[in-house]
Write the structure tokens for this entry.
Amino acid sequence: MLKLSDNLVDAIYADLRQKLQRSAVSPSDRLVDTEIANAHGISRMPAREALLRLVSEGYLVGTTRGFAVRELSLEDISGLFEVRRQLEPRAAACAARDMTPEIEAEITAAMNRVERALGESDIPALLAANVDFRNAWLKAVSNPHMAATISRFIDYFQSVRLGTFADPGTAELYIDGLSRIHAAFLARDPLMVQDRMTLFMFAAEEAYLSVRRRQLQEAEAQRPARRRTQKRGTA
Amino acid sequence: MLKLSDNLVDAIYADLRQKLQRSAVSPSDRLVDTEIANAHGISRMPAREALLRLVSEGYLVGTTRGFAVRELSLEDISGLFEVRRQLEPRAAACAARDMTPEIEAEITAAMNRVERALGESDIPALLAANVDFRNAWLKAVSNPHMAATISRFIDYFQSVRLGTFADPGTAELYIDGLSRIHAAFLARDPLMVQDRMTLFMFAAEEAYLSVRRRQLQEAEAQRPARRRTQKRGTA
DNA sequence: CCCGTAAAAACAGTATACTGATTTTCTGAT
DNA sequence: ATCAGAAAATCAGTATACTGTTTTTACGGG
């Protein structure tokens, strides 16, 4: 596997984080330290520490039987978007002002991949390209604390994003917003980027809320008295 | 020691976090897992996991010789305040709109303690009351993600805050800004709270920058070729 | 007295082992 | 067939032990 850092915990963490970003782990899956350890040929502790870190960052929740991706309540979605609205439009505006030609090219390349994936209805590619687009413009954000915070808040939506892209209509609307932001980046107009990002935030919130609402309804319909045991919680 | 949670890691984490909030750990101190473990009569692992969590949250850095509180560069301070400026004024405005009489009383009580501590030049009490004031108004922020993010960003400044309060002039200015915010809370005027918090953010940034600049100068003057070995870093 | 080198110590990282709680599976009785 | 209860399995939490690296200290030569 990847061993960019000499540290096993970081390697496992990066691996898991990428899996989460690509929605390769569903909320019904259970991540167990021993399994991960065996899969990587290492002992439990590094795997466990990586999992614990993901819990403390809010991506996973501990259950009595392994770790699971955190499922967002409707209130979570609203709350997370309230924070995103405060940060992303402004940060994107800064990025539009400060980006280098190289970064602009990266953004455009990612946008092209997004559109191609949409055309081919290739959901995994769409997810990956979407991540690339975000990472590309975030590179132009000179404040690392800002960029890291934004990245983190976006990553909370992994579990819902899959649902958003699965619906063709929603996906198209989503990508349309993205493409308008991209155009504003190309125009190098910080204020236009800011405004379009703001609009995008509201549209995205609505999309996620409606997807999640449907998910919750379906879940309730299928199993009337379903409960998932949960333990540890990090405020 | 405190064992609010049945979990040793959480207990150690809470203990360390509180010590950090109260500036009870100086950047020259070294936190070592075995020491903490012995002090609490437990094994290394829970202590280590708590430390690792504080590292991943950005409060500590790992050195080759124990863990140390993270020292903020001037760029860090500017970057962190850029995020705070986006979040706190708006969140405080929401708090002013939504706060209950109980929370208002808590805020006022904390403000009184701040002023008493200032009068008596009781720095530890001032630090504690300052934390209380913040926690009090944050209770009125209904969005837990917003509140947690703000808390976290404020806590990054522990190491610098001590220096700010040590200087009487700076402390007085700082407390003055706080008291103006408090008055706006009492007036239950969200916009006034928002504006005063914005002003406060800029003043606080300037204060922290100047304190930190002085700290860095003094450090450089004392030991011309001082370097601190550093390892792990979490983006 | 200063510097280089070797020995010792300190510490993070990793591995393995043990424990207790919870959940699942198995068994047998009604 | 269904349910109760017991046995087994699973897994997080904790403890202890080992390893390799870096820093410090100690020693000896210049």
In short: Residues 190-222 of chain B form the longest helix (33 residues). The mean pLDDT of chain B is 90. The beta strands of chain B are 60-62, 67-69. Residues 7-9, 42-46, 64-65, 229 of chain B lie near DNA strand D (CB under 10 Å from a C1').
